[in-house]
User: Which sequence fits this backbone?
DNA sequence: CTGAAAGCGCTTACAG
DNA sequence: CTGAAAGCGCTTACAG
């Protein structure tokens, strides 16, 4: 009925250890021991405490526990946005699925994910009582990572910081080399002979790694002409269209698209050149999205398994927070190619 | 270099109040006062403390503050999922945008959103040191809301609990009555004379309100035959298709779709009946999504302004947490209809 | 204007 | 097997 107003709502009217002590006639220390199972408390006492604790709906105060060195159960999740203007459906799709999986598995493990995406992240670090932090797609030489390091906060990342010399111990990632090879092999078998990689200068490891893998594949396949176009940020659709038009005139038969925002611009540009997909030009996106699935033609795409990545990320963070070795978690996640209508049938 | 292992990472090596006291030669209480600006501390002392505090990168321990009754800055965000099998792109689209807006504005206000969606929510309530909780789309007679009430946790909701008699004071919502009228008026002007509302039995206020508004509109327009089909949960595409086929044979010229998951099933069913959209059957969805935009034809839809809702939700929660009256926040969010290709031109 | 004391809710040595 | 004491980092009366 009446609202509770300014009072600290999370701890209003809660039973404390003292309440149980009073109720059972035991001392607070005994109650504490009985609850944690630590000391050698008699079964009878233990039962008495358990009963009272249940009856009074006792829950230990997390902040008090934290002051004694316990974990809070809070884990931070940071998604660094490289440049707001470069955002689009596809990236969001990936991010959302990844975040959601992370959160779901965290909650299922009695951990509470705090969303830290945004600009105020650094202010939160070292203040917020989180046990650890997961960072999705850190930027090159990411200052956040250095801050985390400095403050001694346990953290893991999805994708490595390309400019950092830190080891990959606490990094979850796709097997980009493998997946790029599979994708390009597939395109090759579908007739690719002259391809264009469309990428952007975000500096994030995702772009970098894909470009590298693409180049490596190209060198191993001299019968395929592999070219690359790097779009500057902020993303400009008209520019992307121009690049694609030029490529079409150069006889490119395959576009390997690492810049999801450019998707419709690419489709339009190809159509404007009077060419058709996939007969004249094949198109494959390096990240899957609802949009890719819904467009006509449906766009073939690499499914990076964002949900699996999110889950691994959490598992790895748990490892690090608890001081375990990282080896217990498989850190490389395989991806799949979803062949759809924007690529041809196998020849 | 070496990782920090099991130690509580958030508070490792942090300067404490005592450090500043030692550094300045003042007592801890004086330092505390100087920092908070409370007592009448001399300017000179205050400056001395500020300097030391900055130099030592002092940040108050949130858990300690919390024990003294301060807020933690943590706010819970709960999205109740009515039934996992009924989930789909459109709902997710809405949810994601809403959540994201909530999180963004929270972070911008130095609040930290904790994602509580999932089954373990109730375990967290009363344990987690959150200042308040926002619940998106509570179910009918939602036990979570009762728990929140019981525990005295400050909360607000997006959409009211249809079976609760609580006032709408702390509820943010769309102006569903208004938007339904606008949408149906628009459809009417586009030739709707025989319409079907396709809804589902989720019991959430969203469905209920739309159905009610639809009925009200129908009564005011005797020249339009308005029918309703309620799909049972879990959602079954085949069943939805059957309902739509029947409706098509009955001469329905407009489908008002409140069940986004049924979108493709509806399209397929209409096509299977040899009818075309929008010429034979118009289609309008009550929630917008990337999918609705990308499909061919592009689906007309109600844009519920999820981002605005998320922002309002946060603003309202802040109000409640700080003990203010709710009137300072406009709780009714207007929506818009995005007329696309699945509805006809105005006649 | 500044400091010593008590206490928020808990745990962990240390005595009995 | 159980309890009294000290202390995590802070603030807020209360004395000086």
Assistant:
């Amino acid at each position: 009925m009446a609202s509770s107003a300014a009072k600290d709502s999370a701890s209003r009217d809660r039973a404390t250890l003292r309440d149980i002590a009073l109720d059972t006639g035991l001392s607070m220390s005994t109650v504490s021991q009985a609850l944690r199972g630590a000391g050698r408390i008699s079964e009878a006492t233990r039962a008495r405490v358990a009963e009272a604790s249940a009856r009074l709906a006792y829950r230990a105060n997390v902040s008090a526990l934290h002051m004694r060195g316990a974990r809070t159960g809070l884990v931070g999740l940071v998604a660094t946005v490289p440049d707001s203007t470069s955002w689009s459906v596809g990236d969001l799709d990936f991010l959302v699925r990844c975040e959601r999986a992370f959160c779901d598995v965290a909650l299922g493990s009695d951990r509470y994910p705090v969303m830290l995406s945004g600009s105020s992240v650094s202010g939160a670090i070292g203040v917020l009582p989180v046990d650890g932090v997961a960072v999705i797609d850190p930027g090159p030489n990411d200052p956040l990572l250095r801050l985390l390091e400095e403050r001694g906060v346990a953290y893991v990342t999805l994708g490595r910081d390309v400019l950092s010399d830190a080891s990959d111990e606490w990094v979850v990632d796709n097997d980009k080399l493998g997946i790029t090879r599979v994708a390009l092999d597939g395109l090759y078998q579908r007739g690719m002979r002259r391809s264009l990689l469309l990428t952007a200068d975000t500096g994030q490891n995702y772009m970098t790694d894909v470009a590298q893998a693409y180049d490596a594949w190209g060198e191993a396949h001299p019968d395929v002409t592999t070219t690359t176009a790097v779009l500057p940020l902020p993303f400009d659709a008209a520019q992307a269209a121009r690049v694609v038009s030029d490529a079409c005139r150069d006889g490119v038969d395959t576009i390997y698209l690492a810049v999801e925002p450019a998707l419709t611009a690419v489709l339009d540009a190809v159509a404007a050149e009077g060419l058709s997909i996939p007969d004249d030009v094949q198109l494959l996106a390096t990240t899957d999205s609802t949009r890719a699935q819904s467009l006509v033609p449906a766009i073939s795409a690499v499914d990076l398994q964002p949900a699996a990545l999110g889950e691994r990320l959490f598992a790895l963070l748990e490892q690090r927070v608890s001081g375990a070795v990282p080896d217990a978690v498989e850190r490389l996640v395989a991806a799949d190619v979803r062949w759809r209508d924007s690529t041809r049938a196998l020849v």
